[in-house]
Specification:
Elements lengths: L2 H13 L2 E2 H10 L2 H4 L4 H13 L3 E8 L6 E7 L1 H16 L5 H9 L6 H23 L10 E4 L1 H26 L28
Antiparallel strand pairs: 1-3, 2-3
Helix pairs in contact: 1-4, 1-5, 1-6, 5-6, 7-8
Length: about 200
């Protein structure tokens, strides 16, 4: 699963309608260019590909006063919305998602209803536990990594990753159940995008 699809679909959806520079600017504002492959070229390529796949609708708007080509604005389609939520749910449940995919999912988690977010995170906990059990079927942490030579450090890393991931997930569940954040259907959502013309302190240029 690619984080860039989730990030771009989510960014366009938050605006309702957005041009490429707005999407790129939002992702840089979130720092996504540092922890994912959301570099400028990847963002513009993803926008074009998602439009070809009918997940985004491309609108040509008036060219600039300097005489440049028409600017393209993108709007998420019904199919695009379905894909967005499928990617979002998958990003929150699998123990095997890369850090950028999980980070993208957390960034959009409040687009779900609170109860569903908790349910997906509990599914993630189960998947982490199952993965840990599969690892410890071959490697016992109490015996230390040396029991398998230096290769034991790989399994030791996996076990520690599963434990840390589970601890973080339980903490997030607790915060959500205690009322943290505004989820879908609960009122005015947190505005995590820049307004038109607002300066981005993290822009790469």
């Amino acid at each position: 699963m690619s984080a860039i699809r989730l990030l771009v679909l989510g960014a366009v959806r938050q605006h309702g309608r957005a041009h490429g520079y707005q999407v790129r600017n939002d992702l840089e504002y979130w720092g996504a260019h540092e922890w994912s492959n959301a570099k400028p070229g990847s963002v513009y390529h993803a926008l074009k590909q998602l439009a070809k796949q009918h997940l985004l609708l491309a609108h040509e708007v008036a060219p600039s006063t300097a005489g440049g080509p028409p600017r393209i604005e993108y709007e998420i389609t019904g199919r695009g919305t379905e894909e967005y939520f499928a990617l979002l749910r998958a990003s929150l449940t699998s123990y095997g998602q890369r850090m950028d995919v999980l980070s993208a999912g957390i960034g959009f988690i409040v687009d779900l209803e609170r109860a569903e977010a908790v349910s997906l995170l509990r599914e993630r906990l189960k998947n982490l536990a199952d993965w840990r059990s599969a690892v410890t079927g071959h490697y016992l942490p109490e015996g230390g990594p040396e029991q398998l030579g230096h290769i034991g450090e790989v399994m030791n890393f996996w076990v520690h990753s599963a434990d840390a991931g589970a601890e973080w997930t339980r903490g997030l569940i607790a915060r959500i159940e205690a009322g943290a954040y505004v989820f879908a259907g609960e009122g005015d959502a947190f505005v995590g995008v820049l307004a038109e013309g607002e300066e981005n302190p993290y822009a790469t240029g």
